[in-house]
Specification:
The chain is of the alpha/beta class. It is built from 15 helices and 15 strands. The chain has 3 domains: 2-145, Resolvase, N-terminal catalytic domain (Rossmann fold), CATH 3.40.50; 163-279, Hect, E3 ligase catalytic domain fold (Alpha-Beta Complex), CATH 3.90.1750; 294-476, no CATH class. The protein is elongated, with a radius of gyration of 32 Å.
Length: 478
């Protein structure tokens, strides 16, 4: 008795009668009727995969690899239909020819019986051509239907982060929708995409695919108009258009997560950031406390870290654009800023944008209580890990300082979000409270530079460094 293999494939567009079980049942029946042995290890199944490209089908590739073994493991490959083998004539011809000529293995369709004469070659080629036409025509019809549905505001894609699929429409996900609002709120408040990604990762929040956040995934959220009630669809693949900014937009039927004003504010800041920084500067780690906060008093450019990490310098001066050097030792400028915070706190004198004193900006509510609780739970876990001997004392101190800084930042932002500031006096009192609650963390050697940077950004909008006299002016965040 000869040995057979079975190849089973079903794609998403196939009907119920072509299910893997029904295909295999028919193949086993054919094998019994023709005295063929069909071992379980020679049953190869690709489910939910198109037959248009062979290299995208793992079970198919495994079958071909097995067929090349010496001596040959089976004599024939049984299919429900030739369309299961391939919907691409080029792949079909290449693999069938290789199997028959090099391996001595035939390919048989149990429902499309061919005769032994030479006319069977023409009939098989005709069947394959019809299968390829069906596949191409089906793809064209699907695209046409999706285009029509999209033009009417219908959903033609998976829901983005912050939404889940309802009855043919995106609906807000109660667990992730607040995170989307937090991302936009943090961004327009001054945090960079990398700092936001680090914040999300510290909170053990994952993307839709379960991955850790990166600055580009944060930017993908910030540029997605779905969050203001739009739907978008790219007409063609453009690898330069990473965030689909040239995609076609239509009004959707789903509930927006943020207001158009907040979305536009995020796009404006993103545009300004792209103009102010080089391509790779934005993705640098926040390796020092004042990264992105200190500005030159002559040209307004940011002071960036030197190559040896010992001092800061106006990056426009380094390029020959600004004519005043603002070189300052990193440790020295850190002390100057901390002393300025203490001085302003002692004098109760805080500089901030006057427009913000009239009324607090309209912000989306965020799940701060939930996020703070998560951080407190993490604090308990790192303590338990230390007590159990899993972490060293140094690891425990580092983790504790980092989480404590995050809790302080969240508590400060919760207070800022929940209070409706009306007068400059009320704003000053809130700023003073934030400085008092976080000053010790900013001064601690146990707090990482990244944590200090994130914490300082929740208090400070920008710091103006005045070169003569090494003076600073701090503009506080409302």
């Amino acid at each position: 008795m000869n040995t057979a293999a079975a190849y089973i494939r079903v794609s998403t567009e196939d009907q119920v009668e072509f299910s893997p079980d029904s295909q295999l049942k028919a193949v086993r029946k054919y094998a019994r009727e023709h005295d063929l042995i069909l071992p379980e290890e020679f049953v190869f199944v690709d489910e939910g995969i198109s037959g248009r490209k062979a290299d995208k089908r793992p079970a198919f590739q495994k079958m071909i690899g097995t067929a090349k073994l010496k001596p040959k493991p089976f004599d024939v490959i049984l299919l429900w239909k030739f369309s299961r083998f391939a919907r691409n004539r080029e792949d079909s011809i290449v693999y069938k020819s290789m199997l028959r000529k090099q391996c001595g293995i035939d390919v048989v369709s149990i429902s499309e019986q061919l005769s032994e004469d030479k006319t069977s070659i023409l009939i098989e080629a005709l069947i394959e051509a019809m299968d390829e036409y069906y596949s191409l025509n089906l793809a064209e019809e699907v695209r046409r239907g999706m285009t029509e549905k999209f033009s009417r505001g219908g959903v033609v894609s998976q829901p983005p982060f912050g939404y889940k699929m309802g009855d043919g429409v995106f609906v807000p996900d109660e667990n992730t929708a607040p995170i989307v609002r937090m991302i936009f709120g943090d961004y327009i408040s001054g945090l960079g995409t990398r700092q936001i990604a680090a914040k999300l990762n510290d909170m053990d929040i994952r993307t839709l695919k379960g991955n850790r956040w990166e600055n580009r995934t944060v930017e993908y959220v910030l540029t997605n108009p779905t969050y203001i009630g739009k739907l978008r669809r790219s007409k063609a693949i453009d690898r330069k258009d990473r965030f689909h900014e040239n995609a076609e937009l239509v009004d959707g039927h789903h509930q927006p997560l943020i207001s158009p004003e907040i979305f536009e504010a995020a796009q404006k800041r993103r545009s300004e950031t792209k103009r102010s920084y080089t391509r790779y500067a934005r993705s640098e780690p926040a390796e020092f406390m004042l990264k992105g906060l200190v500005r030159c008093d002559k040209c307004g450019a940011t002071l960036t870290m030197s190559g040896d990490h010992s001092y800061l310098q106006c990056h426009r001066y380094a390029k020959g654009v600004c004519n005043v050097s603002h070189a300052v030792n990193v440790n020295k400028i850190n002390k100057i800023v901390i002393d300025k915070l203490k001085q302003d706190l002692s004098n109760n004198n805080f500089a901030f944008e006057s427009e913000a004193a009239v009324k607090k900006p309209d912000a989306e509510s965020t799940a701060f209580s939930h996020l703070i609780q998560r951080e407190q739970n993490k604090l308990m876990r790192v303590k338990e890990a230390y007590e159990a001997g899993v972490d060293t004392l140094e690891e425990y101190k580092e983790n504790k300082a980092k989480i404590t800084a995050r809790i302080a930042e969240l508590q400060a932002k919760e207070t800022a979000e929940s209070t409706e500031y009306r007068t400059p006096e009320e704003i000053s009192a809130a700023i003073a409270g934030r400085i008092r609650s976080n000053l010790s963390t900013l001064q601690s050697d146990e707090t990482s530079e990244t944590a200090k940077n994130m914490l300082l950004r929740s208090i400070v909008d920008r710091i103006i460094f005045i070169r003569p006299g090494n003076l600073t002016e701090i503009i506080y965040r409302i």
